[in-house]
Amino acid sequence: MELAEGLNAVSATVAPKYFYDTLGSQLFEAITRLDEYYPTRTEAGIFDAASGDFAATLAGAGIGHPCLIDLGAGSCAKATRLIPHLQPRQYVPVDISVDFLREAAEQVQSTFPALDIVGVGMDFSAGLALPPQVQRDNRVFFYPGSSLGNFSPAEAQAFLQRLADPAQGAARGLLLGIDLVKDKATLEAAYDDSLGVTAAFNKNVLRHVNTLLGSDFDVHQWRHIALFNEAESRIEMHLQALHNLTVRWPGGERRFRGGERIHTESSCKYTVASMSALLRRAGFKQISYWTDPKDWFAVFWAAA
Ligand code: AVJ
Prior knowledge:
The model has no long low-confidence stretch (mean pLDDT about 95). The chain is an alpha/beta fold. About 35% of the residues lie in helices and about 25% in strands. Strands 1, 2, 3, 4, 5, 6, 12 and 13 form an eight-stranded mixed beta sheet that branches. The structure holds N,N,N-trimethyl-histidine (AVJ).
């Protein structure tokens, strides 16, 4: 099993998708409202300012009546604000959390009764096989929130390459939200807030792992760490054992020395130049972008 394998690795890891049990999703929602966590509100500001440009941008790429594919839709809140501007013919929210998605999609349907909605519950990090009801042409992929940052740059390129692939139909576009490199203090504060919400979010992964694996992690024995790795241009979150301890689960165990860490998340930060280059390598053309006045976050448009 992936979880046991990650825990037994020389440098222990738990993949960030395990943050998002119900409590984890709620803690993430709380993070987006923290003073220190600027990405969500900065991105919203960019969308508010730029949304008037979107119709012209789509028209320029020859995309009419788009099929809006919302990758990691969650509450569908961001798409709900975008829909009046993009006027999609079809809306396809995709999320790993199926029950959450169903309720959110119903909410969108009541707001836009005439819109054709096809909800898809899947882990798209593994591949993007959409059901046949999804419109083939004029697809616009919507990937906000800098979620792409959880992939390494090589993985991100491979993922974007699949979106740019002609197999996805004619006239494709991508609307992508990306957090930009900035000073270390601002970045680290965003992932180690004064209320300790991000620390709770990080430690909650141990509770979720206990449920999934039957392990006996004691949350009290771990400390939250967030650091900006400048060489790799990424925020890393770790959980550090406060002292020597052993974690046991049915069929396995792992001893941790005091100070030893479990790597739980990498959140890669890009520059406008590095993301533009990555989009080009993935096969996208006609790249444009909008940023906020501080250049903290960027929304990219790229046509395939
Ligand atoms: C959902 C992956 C974009 O990396 O900023 C927030 C997750 N982790 N605080 C991010 C997260 C800690 C978030 N993403």
